[in-house]
Amino acid sequence: MKILAIGAFALASLVASAAAAQTQGPQNPGPVIPGVCVYFNQQLLATSTAGQSVQARMEQLATEVQGELAPYATAIQTEITSLQQGGQAADPDGARRTALQARITEAQTLEQTRQDELRYTLSEQRRLISAQVEPILVAVYQERGCGILIDRESVFILNPAMDVTEVVIQRLNTALPTLTFNRMPIPVQAQ
User: Fold this and answer.
1) How much is the pTM?
2) Residue 21 clears pLDDT 50, i.e. is over it
3) Closest by CA position to 155, among listed 7, 13, 33
4) Cα atoms in the Cβ-side hemisphere of radius 13 Å centred on 142
């Protein structure tokens, strides 16, 4: 099913991003450039307690959706096998094939709806995290005397003293230790 592939890809991306962020840098990272700060949002999403709770819950929701869709797949496969084994005699007027096609369409529609709901749910949880992170970033920006805040994804190597990500993660962990949520239906206007 597509949902497993999406979930596995998302998890692999987060793990790879976190691993890339923790690779060893040069022995002499160069000078700290006054006013230049760097922030890595992917690391925050992967390692903050709120980000980890979102990832864990999204995995649970994907498993629930898989459980919801599994009976469709089983019933469809059983009917396909039955029709193949029975040949023309199993469905002389084509009614079973028509019903099977309707069931397949229904299953595909449900799967697409659930995928959309999971994507929407994830985006809403990330939006909630971003809403909490923004004032923290502004405060850290001002405290550190940043003149520019650069996205870590745009920087290959940097002096770790210019990276504000850990401070932001610590403050987010205090402000938003976890998120509790269920799969969200997509609002009519967003569809």
Assistant:
1) 0.78
2) no
3) 33
4) 5
